[in-house]
Amino acid sequence: MRIDILSVLPEMIEGAIHSSILKRAQEKGLAEFHLHNLRDYSTDKHRRVDDYPFGGEAGMVMQIEPIDRVVSLLKSERDYDEVIFTTPDGEQFSQSLANELSLYRNIIILCGHYKGVDYRVREHLVTREVSIGDYVLTGGELAAAVIADAVVRVIPGVIGDEQSALSDSFQDNLLAPPVYTRPAEYKGWKVPDVLLSGHERKISEWRMEQSMERTQRLRPDLLKR
């Protein structure tokens, strides 16, 4: 998978893509990331990529020209399955969407910034708008890093034990059950006996019961999906 990220602050994403699982995915040849500084595609002598909005509203707006230049260049080199715009008013990012995107070969992620982008970008260049939550960040770089991490980690082969990713919360619209490790008792706090029993069926049943209980208590909305 190839992910191209378009940003005015690409340095905000560099640490994420060169660490942990994303770094491992690249070393295995399963994913590659390309950061593009939108200022490099500006024709302004000061490399500006924003301007005042028509109508006099407060704030600055990302211009369409630099974005169109880099998107057009990338599309001339290869086909892209999605051009994603990170924005608070997009569709809610979810594990099912991460699973879907992980099946694609090439995606572009455009990081929003300032007051937003010239709306013609959303009308003509973007194929999908995604939000990681109902709140506003300074820019879409952190959202892009979140999306990239969630997508790449479920690509087969990225995580050594693929069952680990498949048993994460939200994979089946359920929260994951509690997990424990050694020591079996600490300060009088004990690991549930069933996990020490070695009885696979009972352990599996316990985990499902715990997942259902935690989902019902903490995220009942998931059970309605």
Topology as H/E string? EHHEEEHEHEHEHHEEHH
Instruction: Return the structural class.
Output: alpha/beta
User: What oligomerization state is this entry in?
Assistant: single chain
End-to-end Cα distance: 29 Å
CATH superfamily of the largest domain: SPOUT methyltransferase, trefoil knot domain
Strand element count: 9
Sheet of most strands: 5 strands, parallel
Radius of gyration: 21 Å
Total helices: the number is 9
The CATH C-level class name of the largest domain? Alpha Beta
Strand order of the largest sheet: 2-1-6-5-7
Low-confidence spans? none
Average predicted confidence as pLDDT = 94
Known CATH architecture of the largest domain: 3-Layer(aba) Sandwich
β-strand percent reads: 15-25%
CATH topology title of the largest domain: Alpha/beta knot
- Which word captures the global form? elongated
- Helix share of residues? 25-40%
Q: Number of folding domains?
A: 2
Structure overview:
The chain is of the alpha/beta class. The chain folds into two domains: 2-152, 3-Layer(aba) Sandwich (Alpha/beta knot), CATH 3.40.1280.10; 172-223, Orthogonal Bundle (Trp Operon Repressor, Chain A). Helices cover 36% and strands 18% of the residues. It has nine helices and nine strands. The chain has helices at residues 11-17, 20-27, 64-77, 95-101, 119-124, 141-152, 162-166, 193-196, 200-218, and strands spanning 2-7, 32-37, 50-51, 61-62, 82-92, 106-111, 128-131, 185-186, 189-190. The chain has a five-stranded parallel beta sheet with strand order 2-1-6-5-7, sandwiched between helices. A two-stranded antiparallel ribbon has the order 3-4. The protein has a two-stranded antiparallel ribbon with strand order 8-9. A hairpin with a 2-residue loop joins β8 (185-186) and β9. The longest helix has 19 residues, at 200-218. The mean pLDDT is 94.
